[in-house]
């Protein structure tokens, strides 16, 4: 028994031949390079670093950026790539997001010409890994209250900086060749580039994780870190700097979550067609069909939403509240889909032989980072009422 096409709305007809080709290329990579080993990587809690250069060769690192060795692809193409990679695992898509949407975007948008030339070509190739150090132990959803501080070291144009503070949940920090660090100064928030090996920097991977296990997140301490004037990102001043990068990451998440949801749905559908219970396939029971239909409806809606956001982004008209709507809805629905998919798998669903519970656990992290449900709810609430309710 086989399943019919799940693209009931024929969403593929909304994609160009070039977009479909890019999607297939990333889908093939995910099937061949990620899916065969992801259960083991997740169980062992490792991220295979050799994937960095392979993803660079695939052309998905900083793929929305122009010049400096970056692929220069469209927002929709980046979204399609994010969806296919997260169908493999949220941790793999997170690597691409941290590298491209956060670290590379910060340098590309706010860096000097020298900084761009030094870092972006190697980062696009996966030869140098970057990280984005914003979140702190007591400043997650409220980055304006960050305690990490950079003090001027000297006077005049040649003055350097001394950096002190602590960051938490910083993806890739322990393997990064360059850190994009956001710190408070006497002149507001600024961004700094901190190369690997700089004295006074300690990055410690967080091991006790029930989610995103095939990924790297760290605690980072900056203790009297001395930086030259060339470390400053000259174009970034205030929270607009990091928020610009966060919106890039949030956009990719709206697509990626649908990849995890689709993979969970496909696992449940395949299992229900083959698993006999009370003399017939699970898929033949009304309750199972209701679950499958509810999953598919939300996947089709969420993918259409992501595609609409992509078209807006490519047109240069997308707004932050639209990205918040996409991130809030699609991650929330993806978690429900993954959990319902697990229920169809029964007891077998709690093993690493099947993907839905792994996706559900990962999506708890995706739901939290780059703005929690509550933060995006308040962003939307402020938009529709004109009243801020964050405080």
Automatic annotation (TrEMBL):
It catalyses: glutaryl-CoA + oxidized [electron-transfer flavoprotein] + 2 H(+) = (2E)-butenoyl-CoA + reduced [electron-transfer flavoprotein] + CO2. One of its GO terms (biological process) is fatty acid beta-oxidation using acyl-CoA dehydrogenase. Its EC number is 1.3.8.6. Residues 17-127 form the Acyl-CoA dehydrogenase/oxidase N-terminal domain. GO terms for molecular function: fatty-acyl-CoA binding; flavin adenine dinucleotide binding; glutaryl-CoA dehydrogenase activity. Pfam families: Acyl-CoA_dh_1, Acyl-CoA_dh_M, Acyl-CoA_dh_N. Pathway: Amino-acid metabolism; lysine degradation; Amino-acid metabolism; tryptophan metabolism. It is an enzyme of class 1 (oxidoreductase). Gene3D superfamilies: Acyl-CoA dehydrogenase/oxidase, N-terminal domain (1.10.540.10), Butyryl-CoA Dehydrogenase, subunit A, domain 2 (2.40.110.10), Butyryl-CoA Dehydrogenase, subunit A, domain 3 (1.20.140.10). Its cofactor is FAD. InterPro entries: Acyl-CoA_DH_CS, Acyl-CoA_Oxase/DH_mid-dom, Acyl-CoA_Oxase/DH_mid-dom_sf, AcylCo_DH-like_C, AcylCo_DH/oxidase_C, AcylCoA_DH/ox_N, AcylCoA_DH/ox_N_sf, AcylCoA_DH/oxidase_NM_dom_sf. Keywords: FAD, Flavoprotein, Oxidoreductase, Transit peptide. The keyword Transit peptide applies. PANTHER family: GLUTARYL-COA DEHYDROGENASE, MITOCHONDRIAL. Belongs to the acyl-CoA dehydrogenase family. This is glutaryl-CoA dehydrogenase (ETF).
């Amino acid at each position: 028994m086989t399943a019919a096409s799940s693209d009931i709305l024929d969403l593929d007809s909304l994609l160009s031949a070039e977009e479909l080709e890019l999607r297939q290329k990333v889908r093939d990579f995910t099937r061949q390079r990620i899916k065969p080993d992801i259960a083991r990587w997740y169980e062992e809690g490792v991220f295979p670093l050799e994937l960095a250069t392979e993803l660079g060769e695939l052309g998905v690192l900083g793929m929305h950026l122009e010049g400096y060795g970056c692929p220069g692809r469209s927002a929709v193409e980046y979204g399609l790539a994010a969806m296919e990679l997260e169908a493999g695992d949220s941790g793999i898509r997170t690597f691409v997001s941290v590298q491209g949407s956060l670290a590379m975007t910060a340098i590309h948008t706010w860096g000097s010409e020298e900084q761009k030339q030094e870092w972006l070509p190697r980062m696009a190739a996966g030869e140098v890994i970057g990280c984005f150090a914003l979140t702190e132990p007591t400043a997650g959803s409220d980055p304006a209250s960050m305690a990490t501080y950079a003090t001027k070291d000297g006077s005049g144009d040649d003055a350097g900086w001394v950096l002190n503070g602590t960051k938490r949940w910083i993806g890739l920090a322990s393997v990064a060749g360059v850190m994009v660090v956001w710190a408070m100064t006497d002149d507001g928030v600024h961004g700094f580039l901190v190369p690997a090996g700089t004295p006074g920097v300690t990055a410690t991977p967080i091991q006790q994780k029930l989610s995103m296990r095939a990924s790297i997140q760290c605690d980072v301490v900056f203790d009297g870190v001395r930086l030259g004037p060339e470390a400053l990102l000259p174009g970034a001043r205030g929270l607009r700097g990091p928020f610009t990068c966060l919106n890039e990451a949030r956009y990719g998440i709206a697509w990626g979550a649908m990849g995890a949801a689709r993979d969970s749905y496909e696992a449940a559908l395949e299992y229900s067609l083959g698993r006999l219970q009370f003399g017939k396939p699970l898929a033949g029971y009304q309750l199972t069909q209701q679950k499958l239909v509810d999953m598919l409806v939300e996947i089709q809606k969420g993918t259409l939403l992501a595609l609409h956001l992509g078209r807006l982004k490519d047109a240069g008209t997308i707004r932050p509240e639209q990205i918040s709507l996409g991130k809030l809805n699609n991650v929330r629905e993806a978690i429900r889909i993954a959990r319902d998919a697990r229920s169809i798998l029964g007891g077998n669903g709690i093993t690493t032989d099947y993907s839905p519970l792994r996706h559900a656990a990962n999506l708890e992290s995706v739901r939290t980072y780059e703005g929690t449900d509550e933060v995006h709810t308040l962003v939307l609430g402020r938009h529709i009422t004109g009243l801020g309710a964050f405080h």
